[in-house]
Amino acid sequence: MTEESHAAGVLHPYIISQQPLTMSWGPSSIKSGAFFAWLVVTNRLTGDKTFSTVSFPFIELFPMDLPSRFLRSLFHLLLPVRCITCAQPLYGDPIPFFCRSCWKRIRPLTDPACIHCHRPIISPIGEQSTLQYRCGPCRLHPPAYQRAWTFYAYESPLKEAIGQFKYRGKVALAKPLAQLMLARWTERPILDGIIPVPLHRDRLREREFNQCVLLADYISHHLHVPLYLRTLIKTRSTAPQAGLTRRARLLNVKHAFAVRHPARVEGKCLLLVDDVFTTGTTVNECAKVLRLAKAQTVYVVTLARMV
Ligand SMILES: [Zn+2]
Ligand SMILES: [Zn+2]
Q: Can you list the domains of the chain with their CATH numbers?
């Protein structure tokens, strides 16, 4: 079987393992609630090709647009799928794995917020403050990034959506999650490149994809701004930041990132993309090394924030 004679489709450039990969595929068989296909993955950077057979459970086959929504509804009738949060059966809901009403419950963070780290201001003093308000931690330790945008509260059902996307490999959620980010991001600066917060190679091997790369890839296509892959790399594995003291968090990520191609970032306005803003230490460390490599400005966007 040659790739050309049997190619049934070429998927949108698809990023796994922080490499730009194009997948060609063709049908093979349908059995046990799954669709089997042959697959040729081409690395656009190196030209390497990998041949394999893959299976897709029906529910993960059809992501978002209208014709596929119709087909998904059809499959959902045959194989009922339930919303991850409320367990209601899903029939034709636009977001995979979530019902319409649960998805609408995702809570946006509203202004006023710190002009650096976007921490929501909840104190009465803060509410009376001007647009130039800086939160205490940012005044004490100004971040290396120019500005961060964090869009939604890290709570149910978004928390489940991120968990399923990140740890359960439900990559069909990349597009609706990236769309959530773009929907709230109205004041966009002019950018030269987009950089996803990298994973260490051990973690990447374990998870098989970097969720930040998938989000950044969608944003990059939507904004027509190039995606800089493997420009910023993680040089060692680190423990999760949540629950550590400020000092421990700083030590945890210190020297954990490096710029692989400094010439690529020099003088550039860059956007770092991360999924969850926990304390900001990780994105700040990334911004620090990018600034050391002479990046002109570093901005940060994250989908959700621990509140
Ligand atoms: Zn639901
Ligand atoms: Zn702040």
A: 3-59 (no CATH), 66-104 (no CATH), 124-305 (3.40.50)
